[in-house]
Design a protein that fits this description.
single chain; mainly alpha; Non-ribosomal Peptide Synthetase Peptidyl Carrier Protein, Chain A; 59% helix
Length: 74
Amino acid sequence: METEKIVFNQIKKLTKVKFNLDSEINDLKIDSLDLVILISDIEKELNITISDEELMQLKKVADIVNLLELKLKK
């Protein structure tokens, strides 16, 4: 899936930790600033906007992918 590939590539830029869709964002060893950078880069690449409220609800890598796919369908 294209969205998943984009998310994985962006995360790989920020961490060397192995991860998958079920990985908790907190386990990726990226700080809150890195998370903001991650989301910002994805927003630019996909031309979408993620609100602060949506950002705070993201717990797993799959949550990021699912949110992006939902936004891209709109």
